[in-house]
């Protein structure tokens, strides 16, 4: 479940300036595909199109063979879990923010999700740095930590498709490693599309697509692409 197909997709925000110039690729059900490329190449646009924030102007996008134009945004939200590059959290505890992924989740499930995302130690913290339990200032979450809260939320929601957009997040190496290991767990047996800036963060992807100027410049496994460099 959750196979994604882009077939000759054309898209422009402004008709004078095409962003995607006929993009075709598949993410087979349960596999992980990474999109990398320079900033402005159109990577994040691909994730927005999958969520139907915008309609394409040519070609087709399908999920399990069904044209996206026939799918409502509400049902897309059930099928796709999104970890955006700039995660905006509710001004409530990290635990509350995780539970939002599935309000019926038990306390133990919330803790288990936090453990996988490696954020268990600040589950009581408010994202802006106020500790509700202690009643004084606690941690102020970095962008990468907020992204891990979004990953934990997605673990609880457990959608067949996961989109992780790490395109422009300036993450330190530790956080990058934590996100990578959390992602490896979440993406297992789930159709996953990773939007990444660097090749180094997507080593385990089944296929890497290099997007340049709205077109697919190269594609292959991590090893194959490194050999070409
Ligand atoms: P990437 O994720 O590869 O950095 P984006 O998909 O975010 O690239 O953007 C591709 C191009 O589309 C950029 O030139 C960007 O300025 C432009 N763009 C992005 N969003 C919008 C928008 N909402 N309206 C107009 N242009 C946009
Ligand atoms: P909700 O059910 O709360 O609306 P969503 O899955 O729609 O949750 O969105 C979760 C977060 O991801 C929100 O911060 C939203 O702004 C952001 N988001 C959703 N879709 C996109 C997208 N296509 N591009 C960028 N950010 C997105």
What structural category characterises the helix and strand content? Answer: alpha/beta
Mean pLDDT: 86
Unreliable stretches, pLDDT < 50, 5 or more residues?
Answer: none
The N- to C-terminal Cα distance equals 35 Å
Overall shape: it is globular
Description:
- Strands 6-9-10-3-11-12 form a six-stranded mixed beta sheet, with helices on both faces. Strands 2-1-4-5 form a four-stranded antiparallel beta sheet, covered by helices on one side. Strands 7-8 form a two-stranded antiparallel sheet.
- It is built from seven helices and twelve strands.
- The longest helix is centred in the middle third of the chain and has 15 residues, at 143-157.
- Helix 4 crosses helix 5 and helix 5 runs parallel beside helix 6 (173-187).
- The protein has helices at residues 43-50, 73-79, 94-99, 107-116, 143-157, 173-187, 222-228, and strands at 4-11, 20-27, 32-36, 58-63, 66-67, 80-83, 130-131, 136-137, 161-165, 191-195, 207-212, 215-220.
- With 229 residues, it is of the alpha/beta class.
- It is globular, with a radius of gyration of 18 Å.
- The relative contact order is 0.20.
- It binds adenosine-5'-diphosphate (2 copies).
């Amino acid at each position: 479940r959750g196979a994604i197909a882009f077939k000759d997709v054309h898209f422009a925000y402004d008709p004078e300036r095409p962003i995607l110039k006929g993009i075709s690729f598949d993410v087979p059900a349960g596999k992980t595909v990474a999109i990398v490329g320079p900033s402005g190449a159109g990577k994040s646009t691909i994730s927005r199109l999958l969520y139907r924030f915008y309609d394409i102007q040519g070609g087709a996008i399908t999920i399990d063979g069904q044209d996206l134009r026939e799918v409502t945004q509400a049902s897309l939200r059930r099928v796709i879990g999104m970890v955006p590059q700039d995660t905006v959290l509710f001004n409530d505890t990290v635990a509350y923010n995780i539970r939002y992924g599935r309000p019926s989740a038990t306390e133990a499930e919330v803790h288990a999700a936090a453990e996988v995302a490696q954020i268990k130690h600040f589950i009581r913290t408010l994202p802006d740095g106020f500790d509700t339990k202690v009643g004084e200032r606690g941690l102020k979450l970095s962008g990468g930590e907020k992204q891990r809260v979004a990953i934990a939320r997605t673990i609880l929601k457990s959608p067949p498709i996961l989109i992780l957009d790490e395109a422009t997040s300036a993450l330190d190496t530790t956080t990058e490693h934590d996100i990578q290991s959390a992602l490896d767990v979440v993406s297992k047996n789930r159709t996953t599309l990773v939007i990444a800036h660097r090749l180094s963060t997507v080593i385990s992807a089944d296929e890497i697509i290099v997007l340049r100027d709205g077109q697919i410049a190269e594609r292959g496994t991590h090893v194959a692409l490194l050999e070409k460099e």
